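Continuing the batch. This is chain 6 of the set; chains 1 through 5 are on the previous pages. Same settings as before, nothing changed between runs. Recording input and output for traceability.
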Amino acid sequence: MSNDSGPRRRRVQSDGADLAVYEQGEPSRPAVLLLHGYPDTHAVWDEVADELAGDFHVIRYDVRGAGASSRPPDTRSYAFEHLMADLRAVLDAVSGGRPVHLVGHDWGSIQAWEAVCTMPERFASFTSISGPCLDHVGHWTRRALARRTPRALRRLAGQWARSWYISFFQMPMLPELLWRYGRGGLFTRALEIGEGVRPRPGHPARTLARDGADGVGLYRANMRERLRRPRDRRTGVPTQVIVPTKDLFVSPHLVEGLAARVPNLSLRAIAAGHWVPRSHPGVIAAWIAEHAVGVRNARSRAVRP
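Output for chain 6:
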């Protein structure tokens, strides 16, 4: 069910960051928190949020380094420990202590994996879109190298080809310069030509060049450590992974072996590209709602005498 009322904005203070938080829907309803990725802001979720706000309390925020939130200058301020502090601060401010249904796209999903594996009690369910757990990717890579079968190595090479930009983002200064001097326009054109996602007010954001430049801190602070020395990340949070089969950045094969670490797992494939929250918002909103309601109903049945 769609809701035409716009988001209410508030500020939340976190671990060295001032976060812009947006809410829609009645606070008394079950809460859904939508986490955006790179180089987006909360506005990438506009259409999905409007669909959900009739039945849920929808929460979004601009992550540090993006949109209307503050932009710490040092790279270490973008490490997982600070991102998790931000998420906890938002939850404490808006959820009333109740577990929320967590949804993440791209880097929002990468953050969300860290959250459901380290503070699972805060979440009723999790929907992941185009953003795998970095530790799971590290283990997946090690398994492929250990097997050395043509199929495993071919899939590994395919993901490496998709991830070319990760190494580029480790270079000093150059990514920032490209974003600040023209890369924003290239991104907008690529989004329309490659995925059929046309610009509209709010997305790409007016702050895109700054968001892209500042957001490289996410890659520099977290990628190398987790991929080289992956941790044993597991979660019992009911998890739905939406797999866009035409994603140019995340291989569908990264879900292999995931069930061993996520026992309550469901997978849903969609013939779409990386920015599926923009290209197929109705489907994504419906699947988020179905997952949340299904988890709630299952828990209700479990507690009946």
